[in-house]
User: What shape does this take?
Amino acid sequence: MRKFLIAGNWKMNGTKASTHQLASELSKLDLPANVNGAIFPAFLHIKDVQNVLVNNDSWQIGAQNCAHQADFGALTGEISANQLRDAGCSLVLVGHSERRIIFGEDDAVLAAKTLAALAANLTPVICVGETSEQRLNGNYQQIINDQLRAIFDVVGIDNFRKVVIAYEPVWAIGTGLVAAAEQAQEVHSAIRKFLETYSESLSVNMQILYGGSLNSTNANELFNMPDINGGLVGGASLSAKEFGSICAIAGEIN
Ligand code: PEP
Assistant: This one.
């Protein structure tokens, strides 16, 4: 049976001391057998968090962005997928809506970053989702399929089998406006239908996370949906108690 993946995106939060403390608290949690945990600290804190969790198999560490798709080179201020792997990451977020909207990352850049991540043996967590305007217009599924297709067309089916997808409606991120479980399920199921047009096994095996104001109050309903295989958690992952509760809720679902 597929395990839930519960991933915490810490964004640009925390100091060396506070993230060390948070990681230490997480290291003491007993994750349920059907849950894999992952955390995405800021680049600067990756090494320290990794040191805290070094003998703890429950947690994987990821980066919030593959800053540049090139391997190495004269790119002042950038960080490559190879360097993330070398620093101990096993996952990387690609196309978080904050990267798409605030930093203008387009489909071509995101496809290149996905390829670079895969070449470095990192699992890309590809984030897709619609804005509130796109939801109101009713064409949100088309938008989401287009976001996925743009990456699929570049990386190809064999590579796409190695990614994780996170459905994160932009209107739900950091707003407290969580998608209703049925709304999220509708999109997750439509993503599987879209993937089925390429391959049935790709569709069935894809791990699809929900993200957007997920917390311990709404997690149960969301995780009970048949096509939701975990969560990408922002604000609620900054408290070990709250994040631990979300993991425990996933642990109760058969
Ligand atoms: C996110 O940014 O990926 C996210 C899901 O944030 P939040 O849980 O705070 O809405």
Observations:
- The chain has eleven helices and eight strands.
- The mean pLDDT is 97.
